[in-house]
Amino acid sequence: MNHFPWLTIIVLFPISAGLVIPFFTFYRKQNYSMVYFRYYNWISFINFHWRLGIDGFSIGLILLTGFITTLATLAAWPVTRNPRLFYFLMLAMYSGQIGLFASQDILLFFFMWELELLPVYLLLAMWGGKRRLYAATKFILYTAAGSLFILIGGLIMAFYNSNESTFDFQLLINKTYPLELEIIVYLSFLIAYAVKLPIIPFHTWLPDTHGEAHYTYGLIRINMELLPHAHSFFAPWLVILGAIQIVYAALTSLSQRNLKRRIAYSSVSHMGFVLIGIGSITNLGLNGAILQMISHGLIGASLFFLAGISYDRTRTLVLDQMGGIGTSMPKIFTLFSSCSMASLALPGMSGFIAELMIFLGVIDNPNYSFLFKIIIIIIQGIGIILTPIYLLSMLRQMFYGYKFSNTLTPYLMDAGPREIFILICLFFPIISIGIYPNFVLSIWNSKVNFLLSNNFF
Amino acid sequence: MELIFQNVWFVPLFPFLASILLGIGLFFFPNSIKKFRRLSSFISIMFLNIAMLLSFHFFWQQITGSPIHRYLWSWVLYKNFVLEIGYLLDPLTSIMLVLVTTVAVMVMIYSDSYMFYDEGYIKFFFCYLSLFTASMLGLVLSPNLIQVYIFWELVGMCSYLLIGFWFTRPSAANACQKAFVTNRIGDFGLLLGILGFYWITGSFDFQQLSKRFFELLSYNQINLVFATFCALFLFLGPIAKSAQFPLHIWLPDAMEGPTPISALIHAATMVAAGAITALLGATIALAQKDLKKGLAYSTMSQLGYMMLALGIGSYKAGLFHLITHAYSKALLFLGSGSVIHSMEPIVGYHPNKSQNMIFMGGLRQYMPITAITFLFGTLSLCGIPPFACFWSKDEILVNSWLHFPILGSIAFFTAGLTAFYMFRIYFLTFEGDFRGHFFDDVKKLSSISIWGSLEFNKEQFKLDKKFTLYPKEANNIMLFPLIFLTIPTIFIGFIGVLFDENTINVDFLSYWLTLSINSFNYSNSEKVLEFLFNAIPSIIIAFFGILIAFYLYGPNLFSLNKENKKLPFQSKIDVILKSFSTSIYNWSYYRAYIDSFYYSFFFKGLRFLIKIVSFIDRWIIDGIINGIGIVSFFGGESLKYIEGGRISSYLFFLIFCMFLFFLYSYII
Question: FRET pair for A197, CA 20 to 30 Å: which of A15, A300, B459, B528?
Answer without folding.
Answer: A15
